[in-house]
Design a protein that fits this description.
heterodimer; A: 65 residues; rod-shaped; B: 380 residues; alpha+beta
Chain lengths: 65, 380
């Protein structure tokens, strides 16, 4: 059976993060094969690089205020 | 009876196509078309609806993920101050009205935009954070603030609070197309495996993953523009030898050399970098990048090396040593073999400080000892 998960909603501080996501329960090992042979091949570097630059910019701002 | 999905050969055959489609999505550049903008707005509205949340009135596009994050933090602080007047006195020793809050908003944005001008080295750079924040708090981009009657210290404290709110960007963040891996995985089951499940809520997430990182708040959402420039090497690492590896429409740039972040000067004005920087720069990874950018040949030539031995055959080369320099903890700093290769080009290769002769250095590079090297008829 595939379980549908909905709406990862995190509340905290001043913001609400809404991500209506759907989770597929890993009931078959094939799921992991797909994950490793498809999803893992996609570069995640952009995320990392942008966050490094963002934290650097924020550190400068916080230091200046 | 539970029916499990089994990976079929015809589904497996589509792995490369599916992977490449989502890699292209992750690496997409250029402005959104009108049609894309409309699809993006529809996807974001769909996400709020899927989560049974009220639609925010402020729907905003930011010129980069960094500007978007800073603006989201400041805007969320403004909304919080508006909705929590009872907290003002304990925080600022004053009761703030809308004019006071907006004055603090302008002060915080000015700081952020001044920092951006400083980092880009362009004093003419227009404000980028301010217009995004104004739209995110329901004000016009050309809003003219009234003068606050609060003391300067209060305005400064409000500014500080709003800047501190920028640290909370992660609570509103979704990676959008930066998180293409996850979307590729889940959407595979929808479009390739064609599982018989309800994707009516997921479809909005999948659609929103085709646009830049986003910041979602109860009162606003901000979606980032795609970069104008995104350059990578053959291993998908950010890399550019001629300019920024990443550049967004607001002028924010990143410089990378084969996956390592480096200062802008090393790419844009490499000729002005003192050669000893290759030996004295604190970060070893970046030091290695600089050596590749400048080239050991130029580095060594600029540092007046000692000739340990010059072999009569230029294909065997000349062994050079750099003497210890102030601020460099290696002793000796290093030895290098300047050698001509079979193609006629000259290379300068770093060799062990223990090498005493050209043949020993050649042996080290080739995996032989010096005696074996001496017996070679010729070197290619």
């Amino acid at each position: 059976m595939y379980l549908l998960g909905l709406s990862l909603i995190r509340e905290g501080g001043n913001g609400i993060d809404v991500a209506a996501t759907q989770a597929v329960e890993a009931v078959a090992t094939d799921n992991m094969i797909i994950y490793h042979r498809v999803a893992r091949r996609i570069p995640s570097r952009m995320q990392h690089d942008v966050q490094v630059a963002l934290w650097t910019a924020l550190a400068e701002l916080l230091e200046a205020v | 009876m539970i029916k499990k999905y089994t990976l079929l050969p015809e589904h497996e055959a589509q792995f490369p196509m599916w992977r490449d489609k989502w890699i292209a999505n992750a690496m997409a550049t250029g402005p959104y078309t009108t049609e894309e903008t409309e699809r993006c707005i529809g996807a974001l509205r769909g996400l709020y609806a899927a989560a049974s949340l009220e639609q925010p009135k402020c729907e905003v596009f930011a010129p980069s993920p960094i500007t978007g994050a800073i603006a989201a933090g400041i805007a969320s602080g403004v909304w919080w101050l508006r909705e929590n007047p009872g907290e003002h006195h304990s925080m600022f020793e004053a009761a703030l009205n809308e004019t006071d809050i907006v004055t603090g908003l302008f002060a915080a944005c000015k700081l952020a935009d001044d920092k951006h001008r400083e980092n880009t080295g362009n004093p003419e750079q227009v404000d980028v954070v301010l217009p995004v924040v104004l739209q995110s708090v329901g004000l016009d981009v050309d809003h003219k603030p009234k003068k606050s009657k609060q003391k300067a210290a209060v305005v400064k404290a409000v500014r500080k609070f709003l800047i501190q709110c920028t640290q909370r960007w992660g609570q509103m963040h979704n990676g959008g197309n930066h998180w293409s891996g996850y979307a590729a995985y889940l959407s595979f089951f929808r479009h390739i495996a064609k599982l018989d499940i309800d994707y009516s809520k997921w479809q909005h997430y999948e659609e929103a993953a085709k646009f830049g990182p986003r910041y979602m708040h109860a009162k606003f959402w901000i979606v980032s523009a795609r970069p104008d420039i995104l350059k990578i090497d053959d291993e998908n690492r950010p890399h550019s030898a001629t300019g920024p590896s990443h550049r967004w429409p607001d002028g924010r740039e990143l410089y990378y050399w084969r996956g390592t972040a480096i200062p802008k000067q090393w790419i844009m004005a490499a000729g002005t970098v003192p050669p000893e920087t290759v030996l004295t720069w604190e970060n070893v990874e970046q030091r290695r990048c600089l050596a590749e950018i400048i080239g050991w040949g130029k580095v060594i030539a600029g540092l007046d090396p000692t000739v340990v031995e010059e072999h009569p055959d230029p294909y065997m080369g000349t062994l050079l040593r750099l003497d210890p320099m102030p601020g460099v903890d290696e002793d000796p700093v290093g030895q290098f073999l300047k050698v001509r290769c079979g193609t006629g080009r000259t290379f300068v290769l770093r060799v062990s400080p223990s090498c005493r002769t050209v043949l020993e250095a050649q042996g080290e590079l080739a995996g032989f000892d010096a005696k074996q090297m001496a017996k070679l008829e010729f070197r290619t």
